[in-house]
Structure formats: structure tokens, C-alpha cells
């Protein structure tokens, strides 16, 4: 049998207003669960449970919200368009060198590279 038989654990009852106050304290910028738990003399696991239960939605504080965004027109490309005169060289292992013009499709390039990789 354990040496601490005379020590009884007492479950404390916390008023809901205090629970909400503790959760709100955790939501302050830079606050940690451990620091808030020490300040209020509660177990950190209890703060986590109350935070899940009440969260920011259950508190009377401002919370960030999502705002709808509407895009109009086309999004400009950051890269200049590729022209047929543009060329790139790709050097592959095995001594292969591939010269590709700007008019080559991505599908064709994938097919050629796939064949060379299998060699």
C-alpha cells in the first residue's frame, strides 16, 4: 500500500465565471498555459480542458474573423511569357543533354524526361 494513504485529493469546484477568466487570460498575447495555471493555482491540464470547452467563441472578447475576398480580372503573372524563340538546356545524368524550345508543351517535356529517366 502507498505511503500517502492519509492524503486525500480534494476536487475543487471552480465557478464558471472564473473558468472563463482563466481561459481569457490564456488568450492574451504571449500568455502560456503553464504561466496562467501557476497564476491561478490550477493544473495546466484543467486549463486545456476549459479552453476546449469555452474557447474564444464562449468568451466576450473580440476574435479574428474571416472576411470574404473577391478577385476581379486576371492575376498578373510574375514571370514574362515564354516565346517559341526561348530555349533551355537540361543536362541529365548519363551524358544526356536536352534542348527545349519555348513552344514545347509540358506534356511532351514530361514524356521525354520520363523516357530518359528509365534508361
Automatic annotation (TrEMBL):
Name of the protein: Transposase
Source species: Paramagnetospirillum kuznetsovii
GO MF terms, alphabetically ordered: sequence-specific DNA binding; transposase activity
Short name of any one Pfam family annotated for the protein: HTH_Tnp_1
SUPFAM superfamilies, per the entry: TrpR-like (SSF48295)
Signal peptide range in chain numbering: none
BP terms from Gene Ontology: DNA transposition
Amino acid at each position: 500500500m502507498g505511503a500517502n494513504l492519509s492524503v486525500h485529493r480534494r476536487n475543487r469546484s471552480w465557478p464558471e465565471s472564473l473558468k472563463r477568466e482563466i481561459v481569457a487570460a490564456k488568450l492574451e498575447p504571449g500568455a502560456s498555459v503553464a504561466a496562467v495555471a501557476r497564476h491561478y493555482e490550477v493544473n495546466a491540464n484543467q486549463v486545456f480542458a476549459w479552453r476546449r470547452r469555452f474557447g474564444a467563441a464562449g468568451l466576450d472578447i473580440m476574435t479574428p474573423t474571416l472576411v470574404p475576398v473577391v478577385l476581379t480580372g486576371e492575376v498578373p503573372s510574375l514571370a514574362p511569357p515564354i516565346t517559341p524563340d526561348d530555349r533551355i538546356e537540361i543536362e541529365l545524368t548519363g551524358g544526356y543533354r536536352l534542348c527545349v524550345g519555348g513552344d514545347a508543351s509540358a506534356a511532351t517535356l514530361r514524356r521525354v524526361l520520363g523516357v530518359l529517366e528509365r534508361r
